[in-house]
UniProtKB/TrEMBL annotation:
Key word Transmembrane helix present: no
Record's keyword terms, sorted: Coiled coil
SUPFAM superfamilies referenced in this protein's UniProt entry, alphabetically: Spectrin repeat
Recorded coiled-coil stretches: 3-64, 208-242
Stated name of the protein: UTRO protein
Gene: Utrn_0
Entry annotated with the keyword Mitochondrion: no
Organism: Nyctibius bracteatus (Rufous potoo)
Cited InterPro entries: Spectrin/alpha-actinin, Spectrin_repeat
Any Pfam family: Spectrin
Length: 254
């Protein structure tokens, strides 16, 4: 009777494993939204816990069959053969579910990481847009233009590492068919805004550099003119002081 019960337990265990395999491993999942992906991750976590909890039951079956084999070798031998099959299938099921759970967790982590990098770069784009707007309607002062140019250049020196991560993470998920429509839409919008703002910022940078150069040249010319006027004033004053007749002076002094 004990052998019959143990045989029944082995059959039930094998049936449960077959159902678990069909439910958790043979489904074709399509992750078209973050909610679907997150639900799949949680489901696989529960599946892993469920399968691992059966380890106690498997151990009890193993111990009982060993005890029976020690007492009734003939009955125990057949059960031991069935047990080995069940143990092998159980270990395989555990490994496969662990593997799928790990894969889904990695995919979810990849998605979250992509969102974080997009948030960082979007914040940078917002800052860049603000700096570009600050370069408009500047007062015609050398310091104001110089400060605006320096401020814009400091933002443009932003490293490209984050954009590289966005491209690689997005491509990895799209290649796996994970959230491909959503990610493609997000990347297209981000890249379009990045190209537009970068082009505008560089154009403003060039314009400010040219404006700054013109202002510096003008300032230099005014300074030279001022120095010449001071020198001319000094010379004329000396001529007047010495009562020199204008017709005795060089043409430019006259």
């Amino acid at each position: 009777e004990k052998a019959v019960n143990l045989k029944k337990d082995l059959a039930e265990m094998q049936e449960w494993m077959t159902q678990a395999e069909e439910e958790y491993l043979e489904k074709d999942f399509e992750y078209k939204s973050p909610e679907e992906l997150e639900n799949a991750v949680e489901e696989m976590k529960r599946a892993k816990e469920d399968v691992l909890q059966k380890e106690v039951r498997v151990k009890i079956l193993k111990d009982n069959i060993k005890m029976l084999a020690a007492k009734v070798p003939s009955s125990g031998q057949d059960l031991a053969t069935e047990l080995n099959v069940v143990l092998e299938n159980y270990q395989l099921l555990c490994n496969r579910i662990r593997g799928k759970c790990h894969t889904l967790e990695e995919v979810w982590s990849c998605w979250i990481e992509l969102l974080q990098y997009l948030d960082l770069e979007t914040a940078w784009l917002n800052n860049l847009e603000e700096r570009v707007q600050m370069t408009e309607n500047l007062p015609e002062k050398l310091d104001a233009v110089s400060d605006a140019l320096e401020s814009l250049e400091s933002v443009l020196r932003h490293p490209a590492d984050n954009r590289t991560q966005i491209r690689e993470l997005g491509q990895t998920l799209i290649d796996g068919g994970i959230l491909d429509d959503i990610i493609s839409e997000k990347l297209e919008a981000f890249n379009a805004r990045y190209e537009e703002l970068s082009h505008l910022a560089v154009s403003r940078q060039i314009a400010l550099e040219q404006q700054l150069q013109t202002m510096r040249e003008t300032d230099h010319m005014l300074q030279v003119l001022q120095e010449n006027l001071v020198e001319l004033d000094r010379q004329l004053t000396s001529y007047l002081t010495d009562r020199v007749d204008a017709f005795q002076l060089p043409q430019e002094a006259q």
